[in-house]
């Protein structure tokens, strides 16, 4: 199978001279068609910078990103980003359906009517029927993030890059959204790369968990999660293979944790 | 329905009574009381309204020119921030120049009459509009930039669909200041260079010592200001409801 | 230091563009003199002493008027806070008076107040008092209830609450108003000098324009703009003295 997304030898640092901060060094990645990959690492290891580079929003100092075999210079068509900060990533002057339609600006071959139908269908898929004409600020945080996901799907994405999409929603909503995301990934045939700091979430969502090291970060371990496609918040989380994977990731991350020191 | 605030209304009422009492004491046509001004409003109504029309017409044209040119320019300078930064000090400089200080230019360019006044009004309205639009445009949240780029929007599309709407609340603030400036400069320019307009009416009232008529004119200006403000408020609520609802 | 450099650069750019327009010649020279003749006009006014005299008059009027108007505005805001009836009633008056431009007031006030200091004081204060008042009212009424409760639990009286909690908390917003008022104060002074003055920069601009002295008019406009900068610097300095804690706090949280 061909890799949908691959990264080779990515390095990135901010600043210059003595104050230069090495964020990423020697990062490699291969994501296969239809895979669900989690990137998890200790806090402050540069996860968001990494995702910005993978999506083509930030160029690396060295190394290259390939999306479906083509080098990535800017965000390519077929790649959608879902940001953590949904309240800022949605446009407050547009209604929910207008926000989704906004994601379809590069979609060709559909007229306005068909686009609207498609947007309605996707909003229904994320469970937001009846909220088309609401504005993002009129609905809860979890629902806003669903609009953002819908916008990504509407752009005819094949690859979803998810930057801590559930970090800002409450625990109950979070569990529901995790299941919804897995459903959507299958229904819309999406390859997913999820960046998260939550180890349980990383394991529960993914087929593969990549553990990132401290700065300058790179993949320090590649763990295949041995869980069935159909997962359940209660039984999956109690299964031995879930616990084993969780144990492995968690102990690895804990071993990398530094003692806090006053700057 | 709001209950009429009797106690609150007593404050302006007391002020009016005091003013009337002072006028009675002075007993001079140069210090009319509210009663005399009310009478003057009645007798000069048509003239004032007509002259105010000229004033507002020039102010509106100048303002419209400023909006049409400065909003796009501000958005552009915000998006292409390198050019914006280059011009920033110049904008700051111009901003410190009080609008009436440009009015005497009308006198230098007097040959062109209305056109010169409108140019000066447009200049006065341009500064707050440009400043606010530019400021808003370049401080659009970086997240929105990322969203626009992740959706593969071009620069022009981003300016039109992201920068402009996101800047509207601050542009509205600038527009308020710009409207006040245009009216101010419109009136001031008339007073320095008599042709027509409410400024001329005020000037003439002074020359004829009919202060009551002059104050009637001022009352109309104040009323116009109130109406413009209320209108702006309504428009903002209608067009920018998303901003206020979101902030709440 | 940095802001000084910026101002210098800004003047340089402006003069550069100016000279370019002059050289290209899209505007007749009669209306658009060269930078050199601008400088010459400036130098000549400086040497004859008329510039210093006008500058002194204009700046002191603006600064004194702004101070008086701000003090009055804050006093009125405190009154409105202590006596809500006054606050509600005064709102009608402020609504009506606020839109009146200084240019309209001058000719009407001349007969009662003469051409001297009384006229300037009246016009400047009438149009400059509002930002400090409006921001003061808004800020005093939106002081955090927690801070007020803290004060009350420590046994503060109404006046002590005002003195130790409400007023300091409201000061940053009041200063935002005063900064805006500084712009208005300069406008009011220039307009008054133009319409009823016998001295000051506004009068000078007016006189030179009548005499068709284009370079002098433009040079004076520059001087007026610099007055705007100076007035702003004055307010900023005061703001640092009074609400320095707030500025440092905001810098920390940014």
Characterise this structure.
The complex is a heterotrimer of chains A (263), B (248) and C (254). By secondary structure, chain A is of the alpha/beta class. Chain A has 9 helices and 10 strands. In chain A, 35% of the residues lie in helices and 24% in strands. In chain A, strand 9 (208-212) and strand 10 form a beta hairpin. Chain A is globular and about 50 Å long. Chain B is mainly α. Chain B is 83% helix and 0% strand. The longest helix of chain B is centred in the N-terminal third of the chain and has 46 residues, at 34-79. Chain C has 254 residues and is mainly α. Chain C has 10 helices and no strands. Chain C is globular, with a radius of gyration of 22 Å. Chains in contact: A-B, B-C. The interface between B and C is large, with 58 and 59 residues.
Key words describing this protein structure:
heterotrimer; A: 263 residues; alpha/beta; 35% helix; globular; B: 248 residues; mainly alpha
Task: Evaluate the radius of gyration of chain C.
Answer: 22 Å
**Unreliable spans of chain A:** none
Number of helices of chain A: 9
Largest sheet of chain C: none
Mean pLDDT score of chain C: 88
| Major sheet description of chain A | 6 strands, mixed
Span from first to last CA of chain C?
22 Å
Secondary structure: elements and pairs:
The complex is a heterotrimer of chains A (about 260), B (about 250) and C (about 250).
Chain A: E1 3-14, E2 21-32, E3 36-40, H1 47-54, E4 62-67, E5 70-71, E6 79-82, H2 86-89, H3 96-102, H4 112-125, H5 141-154, E7 159-163, H6 171-187, E8 191-196, H7 199-205, E9 208-212, E10 219-224, H8 235-238, H9 240-256
Parallel strand pairs in A: 3-8, 3-9, 6-7, 7-8
Antiparallel strand pairs in A: 1-2, 1-4, 4-5, 9-10
Helix pairs in contact in A: 3-5, 4-5, 7-9
Chain B: H1 6-26, H2 34-79, H3 81-95, H4 104-108, H5 114-138, H6 142-150, H7 155-192, H8 198-207, H9 211-239, H10 241-247
Helix pairs in contact in B: 2-3, 2-5, 2-7, 2-8, 2-9, 3-5, 5-7, 7-8, 7-9, 8-9
Chain C: H1 2-24, H2 35-48, H3 50-82, H4 84-97, H5 102-113, H6 117-141, H7 145-153, H8 158-196, H9 201-210, H10 214-253
Helix pairs in contact in C: 2-10, 3-4, 3-6, 3-8, 3-9, 3-10, 5-6, 5-8, 6-8, 7-8, 8-9, 8-10, 9-10
